[in-house]
């Protein structure tokens, strides 16, 4: 078993930075921050657990920094807490039963410091390793989160699951130069998004810091490492992915050395805490990028590393591929092998390579990683263009057109748009690849972009995609000119007159709107229902100014009057008063 850095309950209570209850100062106290800054940081006391971590699965993603959470934030989420340091919610009741290694829960607390607990809200800001004998916890990133400078914590409860998002959160004290975005999903085991049977998921976007200054951190790193994992609270059952205290993508498993927080970028971890298990599947540490792009004659190699989290286990690997590759695999606890190939003319095309790593645990578990190798011929041009233009249509849409003289082994085209002349940041406006004809004869293509606005200038790029790489053309630019069409109301409506009441010597304004295609009449009536004045109105928004006179220009007497809007979709009457 690898060494697991954890802290005993006694050591937790000994940490002056985490024993908030004994200090008599709560996070919502005005004196809390001053108290926290006066605490003396005591490094964690490490002990070695007697049992291995419970299993977890990794959905491998080689993207870094820019990616979405498994369930992205939207307006249906509820803000868990106002900006704070070390706060937590009140008890939240769950509409489902969550099982944590044999213990059932129907309520929880969301804590600002990157975790959810099931016994009470947790102030503690200096993390410890798992297992521990207290605090049943799901910890996607247990560290000293501080949202007073930026970021928020959100949650959403559904029939069979709860989702919590720590969105662009900073670190103590009010650190905003590095931000973390991560998510926790837990359920009754019936959520198909994370796989039936799984009941916990940790999802990550960009992760940039590990430690607050009250936990020994300097500029967001060092000190007590952040903990990623699950704790039952009995000092026995737990699942630990790792401890993180520095930048970088290094990772050597749940135990051993502290790891680089950038390794978490865009990762997804799945757990089943509803049943007992003793084996953890192998973890890919270093993997080739996808795709690997080669030309005929290139020689390529990459060192792949896979670890078995348990020290007593061996990991073996099998590789499936459809063209010649070289490698030698010898089972080991930390399995490292060099994967290589030489690109030949016979191998031109796209090749899928699958690596399956399997341990010798009980039961044996496997993990897999797939990537593509694209081999192309050297010295040929997949497409020759004779024209690439952007023109304005009669309806103020932009028509992007291009003509190819010849195409060879071309998959298709994509078109991008930006309001600046920089290709970086351009938006893809053709999400479906436009298929190529792959002919030696001239062929013309066109795409219409209706998502443009009058008074704006746009730049367009054309990407040709072949089996090996992409080639970009452009930009071409165009300015969209013309009259801005009016924005018509979605419904017809009559608003309050203002001022109301108004003096006989003055006037009042009546605002109304008619939806597209409608006409109507605004009628002013006296208490007897007699028409005093009427106005014909058409579609759009209008303001009618009435000076208190009838159709003949005669001043109306003081008293109560009615104004009524009649349209095909609306008949509405309101009251107004003329004062002496």
Strand-residue proportion: 35-45%
The number of helices is 3
Mean pLDDT: 87
Number of domains: 4
Low-confidence segments: 1-23
C-alpha-based Rg, rounded: 33 Å
Biggest sheet details? 8 strands, antiparallel
C-alpha termini separation: 93 Å
Q: How many β-strand runs?
A: 38
Helix content: under 10%
Backbone structural class: mainly beta
Shape by Cα distribution: flat
Protein model, in words:
With 580 residues, the chain is mainly beta. It has 4 domains: 9-271, no CATH class; 286-376, Sandwich (Immunoglobulin-like), CATH 2.60.40; 383-479, Immunoglobulins (Immunoglobulin-like, Sandwich), CATH 2.60.40; 493-579, Immunoglobulin-like, CATH 2.60.40. 3% of the residues lie in helices and 44% in strands. It is built from 3 helices and 38 strands. The strands form 8 sheets. Strands 1, 2, 7, 8, 9, 10, 11 and 15 form an 8-stranded antiparallel sheet that branches. It has a 7-stranded mixed sheet with strand order 3-4-5-6-12-13-14, with no helix packed on it. The radius of gyration is 33 Å and the shape is flat. The termini are far apart. Residues 1-23 have low confidence and may be disordered.
Keywords:
580 residues, mainly beta, Immunoglobulin-like, seven-stranded mixed β-sheet, 38 strands, 3% helix, 44% strand, disordered N terminus
């Amino acid at each position: 078993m690898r060494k697991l850095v954890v802290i005993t309950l006694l050591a937790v209570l000994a940490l002056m930075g985490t024993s908030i209850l004994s200090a008599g100062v709560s996070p919502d106290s005005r004196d809390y921050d001053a108290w926290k800054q006066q605490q003396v940081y005591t490094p964690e006391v490490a002990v070695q657990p007697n049992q291995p971590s419970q299993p977890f699965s990794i959905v491998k993603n080689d993207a870094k920094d820019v990616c979405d959470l498994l369930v992205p934030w939207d307006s249906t989420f509820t803000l868990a807490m106002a900006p704070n340091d070390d706060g937590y919610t009140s008890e939240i009741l769950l509409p489902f039963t969550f099982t944590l290694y044999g213990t059932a829960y129907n309520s929880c607390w969301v804590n600002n410091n990157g975790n959810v607990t099931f016994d009470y809200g947790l102030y503690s800001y200096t993390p410890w390793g798992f297992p521990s004998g207290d605090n049943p916890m799901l910890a996607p990133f247990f560290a000293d989160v501080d949202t007073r400078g930026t970021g928020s914590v959100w949650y959403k409860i559904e029939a069979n699951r709860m989702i919590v998002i720590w969105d662009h959160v900073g670190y103590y004290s009010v650190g905003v130069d590095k931000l973390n975005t991560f998510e926790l999903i837990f359920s009754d085991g019936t959520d198909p998004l994370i796989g039936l049977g799984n009941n916990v998921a940790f999802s990550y976007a960009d992760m940039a810091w590990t430690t607050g200054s009250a936990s020994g951190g300097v500029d967001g790193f060092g000190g007590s490492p952040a903990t990623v994992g699950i704790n039952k609270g009995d000092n026995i059952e737990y699942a630990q992915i790792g401890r993180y205290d520095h930048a970088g993508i290094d990772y050597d498993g749940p135990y051993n050395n502290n790891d680089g927080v950038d390794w978490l970028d865009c990762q997804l971890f799945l757990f089943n805490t509803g049943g007992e298990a003793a084996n953890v599947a192998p973890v890919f540490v270093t993997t080739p990028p996808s795709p690997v792009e080669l030309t005929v004659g290139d020689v390529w190699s990459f060192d792949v590393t896979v670890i078995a989290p348990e020290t007593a286990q061996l990991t073996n690997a099998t590789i499936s591929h459809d063209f010649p590759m070289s490698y030698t695999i010898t089972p080991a606890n930390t399995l490292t092998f060099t994967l290589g190939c030489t690109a030949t003319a016979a191998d031109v095309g796209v090749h899928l390579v699958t690596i399956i790593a399997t341990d010798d645990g009980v039961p044996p578990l496997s993990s897999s990683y797939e990537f593509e190798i694209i081999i192309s011929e050297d010295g040929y041009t997949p497409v020759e263009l004779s024209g690439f233009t952007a023109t304005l249509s009669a309806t103020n849409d932009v028509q992007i057109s291009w003509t190819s003289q010849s195409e060879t082994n071309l998959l298709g085209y994509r078109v991008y748009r930006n309001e600046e002349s920089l290709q970086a940041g351009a938006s893809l406006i053709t999400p479906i690849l436009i298929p190529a004809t792959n002919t030696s004869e001239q062929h013309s293509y066109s795409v219409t972009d209706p998502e443009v606005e009058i008074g704006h200038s746009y730049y367009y790029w054309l990407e040709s995609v072949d089996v090996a790489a992409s080639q970009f053309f452009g930009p071409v630019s165009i300015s969209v000119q013309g009259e801005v069409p009016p924005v018509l109301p979605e419904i017809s409506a009559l608003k309050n007159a203002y001022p109301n009441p108004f003096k006989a010597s003055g006037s009042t304004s009546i605002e109304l709107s008619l939806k597209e295609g409608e006409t109507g009449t605004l009628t002013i009536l006296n208490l007897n229902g007699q028409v005093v004045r009427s106005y014909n109105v058409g579609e759009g928004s209008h303001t009618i100014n009435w000076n208190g006179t009838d159709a003949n220009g005669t001043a109306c007497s003081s008293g109560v009057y009615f104004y009524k809007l009649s349209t095909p979709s609306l008949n509405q009457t309101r009251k107004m008063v003329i004062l002496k």
